Amino acid sequence: MTNIAVFASGNGSNAVNLVKTFNSGNRIHVALCLTDRENAPVIEKMNELGVETIYFPRNVWKEDPQAILDTLRQRDIKVIALAGFLCFLSEDIVNAYEGRILNIHPSLLPAFGGKGMHGANVHKAVIEAGETKSGATVHVVTNEIDAGPIVVQREVAVLPDDTPESLEAKVHEVEYLIFPEAVMKTVASMTPPAVPKSVDDAWAEALGVPNNVPPVPQKDRQPDNSTTDGPHNPTDSHPLNATAYQPYKTASRQANTAATTTEPMPPTFLVWSVIMTILCCTIPGIVAIIYSAKVSSRFYEGDMEGARRASRNAEIWIIISFVLGVITNTLYIPLSIAGLF
Ligand code: GAR
């Protein structure tokens, strides 16, 4: 499950749409809504949907971004969706979530973007400019307004009798389609590819013992210099591409650390098998051989009674060796798999 947060300042119809799209499934969860307006209608809507909503006054957004980041990290938020969020977003937040903050904008960016271009202002400007098409864009947030890489964009026709209100309604309809699509794309790009299980891991899992085989280094994996699981490599041209491998590298680094720093492992199944065979099979076998040797020495000494006794003992130890050998090799394997050893 990937937790996401929605930031919204107004009505929150996009926020509601994201909650309704994701929160009944088990892959993405809108776990938090943050707002910069105390009386924003989105607050009540989120409360009705059971989504935790917190209001931070504008000065906190500007002067104490760490408070916002702490709130997000405490709830394990991986992706942020700006759904009509009209407040200044500090560089600290943008950098901490680089490539993982999406903004929805009601025009075909880069057209009609930038400072002061939001909501009704955009639709008014589109109509005044005599455009025949408009649309909506979801883009990655960078430190430049409305300028990050486009994730999804869709057009709507602008008809001669359209008003800012009718255009807004049409644009909203496509926003409800493309915003969830862009969130899914971003989350998918962050999910590490499934690593096939090794034979050692499979055995360790079946026997309920930890596997102490260190992971094989992958030569073609990129060097990992990151210190958090957020920012991407600054040399990447597209932040989404960057997040595609960044969390994966972090996860693999944790796996390596775990594998190399765990306590010494208990002997594996194979080691125990050899020990049990030596104790139960080989040692009685050696005793049987000693008694066999005694048989001939007693015989040549003329001690027929001693030779008979040694012969009986040799037979008993051969049987013990055989029985224990059968037990260790037939019973031990299923018992150890069942977790009784
Ligand atoms: C949406 O149309 C969104 O594209 C726009 O605000 C509206 C919020 O509607 N965002 C911007 O203009 C950002 N520059 P909503 O509150 O009903 O989701």
* Annotation field: number of helices: 11
Output mean pLDDT. Answer: 82
User: Strand arrangement, largest sheet?
Assistant: 3-2-1-4-5-6-7
Gap between N and C termini: 36 Å
Count of individual beta strands = 7
| Unreliable spans | 220-265
Which ions and ligands are bound to the chains? glycinamide ribonucleotide
Helical amount: 40-55%
Shape annotation:
rod-shaped
Structural class: alpha/beta
**Radius of gyration over alpha carbons?**
35 Å
Order of helices and strands: EHEHEHHEHEHEEHHHHH
Largest sheet: 7 strands, mixed
Describe this structure in words.
With 341 residues, this protein is an alpha/beta fold. Helices cover 52% and strands 13% of the residues. It is built from eleven helices and seven strands. α5 links the parallel β4 and β5 (101-105). α6 (119-128) crosses α7, α7 packs parallel to α9 (239-261) and α10 runs antiparallel to α11. It is rod-shaped. The structure holds glycinamide ribonucleotide (GAR). Glycinamide ribonucleotide binds at residues 8, 10-14, 83-84, 104-106, 118-119, 122, 172, 175.
Q: What characteristics describe this protein?
A:
341 residues; alpha/beta; seven-stranded mixed beta sheet; 11 helices; 52% helix
Gist?
The protein is of the alpha/beta class. It is 52% helix and 13% strand.
